[in-house]
Structure formats: structure tokens, C-alpha cells
Amino acid sequence: xxxxxxxxxxxxxxxxxxxxxxxxxxxxxxxxxxxxxxxxxxxxxxxxxxxxxxxxxxxxxxxxxxxxxxxxxxxxxxxxxxxxxxxxxxxxxxxxxxxxxxxxxxxxxxxxxxxxxxxxxxxxxxxxxxxxxxxxxxxxxxxxxxxxxxxxxxxxxxxxxxxxxxxxxxxxxxxxxxxxxxxxxxxxxxxxxxxxxxxxxxxxxxxxxxxxxxxxxxxxxxxxxxxxxxxxxxxxxxxxxxxxxxxxxxxxxxxxxxxxxxxxxxxxxxxxxxx
Amino acid sequence: xxxxxxxxxxxxxxxxxxxxxxxxxxxxxxxxxxxxxxxxxxxxxxxxxxxxxxxxxxxxxxxxxxxxxxxxxxxxxxxxxxxxxxxxxxxxxxxxxxxxxxxxxxxxxxxxxxxxxxxxxxxxxxxxxxxxxxxxxxxxxxxxxxxxxxxxxxxxxxxxxxxxxxxxxxxxxxxxxxxxxxxxxxxxxxxxxxxxxxxxxxxxxxxxxxxxxxxxxxxxxxxxxxxxxxxxxxxxxxxxxxxxxxxxxxxxxxxxxxxxxxxxxxxxxxxxxxxxxxxxxxxxxxxxxxxxxxxxxxxxxxxxxxxxxxxxxxxxxxxxxxx
Lengths: 275, 323
Description:
The complex is a heterodimer.
Chain A: E1 2-6, E2 9-11, E3 35-37, H1 39-51, E4 64-71, H2 76-85, E5 89-94, H3 102-116, E6 120-124, H4 135-143, E7 147-157, E8 160-167, E9 170-177, E10 180-184, E11 194-195, H5 214-220, E12 225-229, H6 230-233, E13 241-247, E14 256-257, H7 261-270
Parallel strand pairs in A: 1-4, 1-6, 4-5, 5-12, 6-10, 7-10, 7-11
Antiparallel strand pairs in A: 2-3, 7-8, 8-9
Helix pairs in contact in A: 2-5, 3-4
Chain B: E1 4-7, E2 10-11, E3 14-15, H1 18-33, E4 37-42, H2 46-53, E5 60-64, H3 74-85, E6 90-94, H4 97-110, E7 113-118, E8 120-124, E9 127-134, E10 139-145, E11 150-154, E12 171-173, E13 186-193, E14 206-210, H5 218-229, E15 232-235, H6 237-241, E16 262-266, H7 272-278, E17 283-288, E18 301-304, H8 307-322
Parallel strand pairs in B: 1-4, 1-6, 4-5, 5-12, 6-11, 7-11, 14-15, 14-16, 16-17, 17-18
Antiparallel strand pairs in B: 2-3, 8-9, 9-10
């Protein structure tokens, strides 16, 4: 199975410094923040690695995992890290973040899929900076491929994937015949969430994503990393969604400490009127 | 044309509450654009749900029903929604799992820009600007969509549910558009509903959430409190990761986003990730042993106490206050 995994690097919103918005509000200031791979994309990479290996012998990869990112030269760090955990090959689409929206990324990915012809595009359900949750769905429509979004479990079948999707009120299971687009939710990295045909159904993976060993990090430097110009993938680079400004969230006014349970109940009833 | 199309969400022949939030958006947007709004009810049981939609003040209610739409699949729904959407300036649904799955495919079919999970709409002349929470709720972006048709999903907790208007909109049947090849390669297998007597997290008026501090006593401590309040139960990521709570209860940026009237955070320290999921709550109560826990910075009422003795006391207090 050949799997394409789009990876975005994001400024970590969990970082203690947090994103800053200058008074002009014209852009988000990410200076000084740590870059990290979008966590949902990391989960997608982990799922892709599991689907192309035998859990007992993970180093023997059957199939190919190709990672792709959009960004300037320094985003290659993200790609090298992915290569170090087991991806075979990487592609960087040369551009800058402010020249992209979900639609343009999806269109460029479509062109890349037409070239690479993967069986599956496996990606995070959303990036934790823009929180848009749309690229996978748009890509699937542009390709006229079936999709399974918010995947919590994936079982490989002959020519298909059985995907348990995390939706409101429960889990919806779909069978998608390949090629297909799958976007993943966080529970995809639980120990028994993903099984290829090669891995015993009783095998338990480690919880979470794998880490690269030092020799693998060294070896990753020699793995192929190609550069593609965005213009070669998308002739029209117009953005369909424009941002005009940013605002910090409204601050909650500091509350009060109540002295005991009786005080709390009384305030909830008489002051907040929520009981 | 400056009209708005609401894509209703239907389950078991009824409108889901999410639809009412999208209608509230449509009322605002249509007023700004000087147009009207219609509601598209699509899927199994659509005609039953249409009767309900007729009371929501729309210019018309469009019904798309066909055996091929029995189980929801974006590949089967998107062609019809896009076909109907062609006559509108804005196509809107709710940012529920359904809307998040379906609407980007609709946008792609229409060549339209898609603004997801918006929390407000602002009219600038006849132009619409959208406010979206980004960066785990640490920033709001103001954006506009430049395509002739715009596709939008709205955050349910940010738009009050539309009330019945007392009117009765006319109903029109619309043809179901044949799907493309993608639909032939996807098959609905099953839906495993999480059976619970409690309200759904995203729709609950009261949410009681627990953190890692509850340990194995998670349900034992929280269930009586949730029962006393008729509340949904949530959990922090730490509690889910540690296995104290099932993972579908997770509240936070990567879990569920909630904004109930009352949110009780029990033994939750308040990581940014968690705050992003519940900061929109009207009244926040925090109970935590650690007086310096960040949760107290957003809580309207904080109680520094041991939760194992406090929560049972609180249950009794609430029961007494309610009776």
C-alpha cells in the first residue's frame, strides 16, 4: 500500500508563551513559539506506518509512506523528523504559510496525488493553528474519491479500509474501497486502533506515536527529499478565504473564591440563577 | 440572488437541534444581504423532519428524499446539496460531525470558499465577515469568502437555537442528484450509538467534567453530581489518557467544544487545551485542591477543597436547593 501523508508544522498553541496578537490586529504573531508537527498529522503518520508494516517486524515496510509539507526551506525539519520515524520519502512544496488557504492546499495536493498515485491519503482531521477541518474533505471531492473523516479505527481489508469514525453520539463505521482519503482523530493512536493485513489482530501497539532512535535520525538525512514549486501544482493560486484581522479572545473577568459548599450552592441559585 | 440555504441535520426522522443554530445564522445573514433563507431537509425521514422545519420562518422548505440517502454518506449527499446550493449566496450548516464532514465537499463541488466553525457573522454593508476561533481558542480571525457562493459552518454553542416563528413555510420537493463515482466505493456499515441516559455533551445545558485527580473513582464521584443537575459528563484529556474516563467524553481543543449554561470543573487544573473546549460556558465553577490551578483564572466561582469530600456535600446541597 502506498500512502501519502500531508504534514503541517504549526506554532504550538499549547506553548506557554501562546500566540500573540499585535495591537494592529493584522496578523498573528508566532515569533518565539516552538514549531511542532500538527499533532493530528503526527497521528496520521503513525497510522500510515502501522498500515505498512507488520507490528512484530515494524522495520520491514511493505508499501511506501510519502510525507509532504507546504512551506519554506526550514519546514524540511518536519519532513526529516517524519523520515526518521519510518517514512520512506518526502516532498516539500515551496511556499509560505500566508499564501495558502485550505482550498489551495487541497488543489495542490490533488495535483500531487495525480502524480504520485497513492492508494490512500492519510491526514489529520484539522491543523491546530487554523482549526479549519476541511483539506481532506475538499481533496476527496476534487479527486472524486470516497473518504472517511475523523477515523478512530482502521482495519485493512483486501482493497479496502474499514474505518470507525468518531461522530456525535457514537461511532459510524464505513468501508471505503481504495483509493480513498482518510482523516484521523486522536484515538487512532490507541494500541489496537490500526491493523494492516500483516499484523496479528491481537497485537498491541504502544500507545501514542513512535519516537525516532538516534541511528534512524542519522539515516533519515540520506532519505530522498524532493522540492516542488507550488506553481507547478496549482496554476491558480488565488485564495478563496481572506483574513482581515485577528482579535484576542474576550478575557473572562476574574471570578471569586467561595468559602464553602453552602456558599457555592447559594450563589449558583441566587446570583448566577443556574440551579 | 442573496439568499441563504440552511442544510438541516436529520436523525431518526427529526431535525437535530444543530439545525436551529444554523437557522439563527441564516436569519442574521439574510437580513444583512436583503434576502430570504430556505431550509434543505435531506435524507432518510426528511419529509417527517420537514414538517418541523416549516415552523422556523423560512421562505421555503426543500425536501430531498430517496432510498439512496437512507444512511448518511457525504459522497451521496453532497451532489444534491451543491445542486440546490447553486441558487444561493450562502450555504450554511452546523459544525457538528455531520456539517464538518459534508460541507467542505459541497464547497469543493461549488468551487466555493468555506469558512468553518464560525462563532459570529458581521455585516459590512452587504458583505459578510465571519469570526472564527483559531489557535485552540487563543485568537479569533475575521475572514471573508470571495467566491460568488460561500459555504459556512457555524459553531452551535455560539448561535442560540432559533425558535418556531408561528408561521408555516411552504414545502417543495427537490430532485436528488445522482452521485459521482466516489459514492460507488463507499459503503455505510453500522452506527454504534453510545447509549446514555444523559444529554449529549455538545447540547447539554449543564456539564460536569472531571480531571485526573478523580482517579478510579471518576464515575463514582461524578455520576451523582451529574444526576442531581441533569448534566452531561465530560473529562479532561489527562483523565481520558489515564483511562479513568472513556475518551469520547474528552472536552478540549482536540475533543468536544462545549458552552453550557453551567460548567463544573472537578479536579481539573485547566490546561490551555482544556480551556479552549469550555471557555465559552456561561458560568464556570471549579473545585480543586490546588489554589494556584489555572482553572481558577477562568472560573466564576472557585472552591479550594478536596473534591472527594466536597462533591458529595455539593450533591446534597444541590438536591436541597432544587427541592
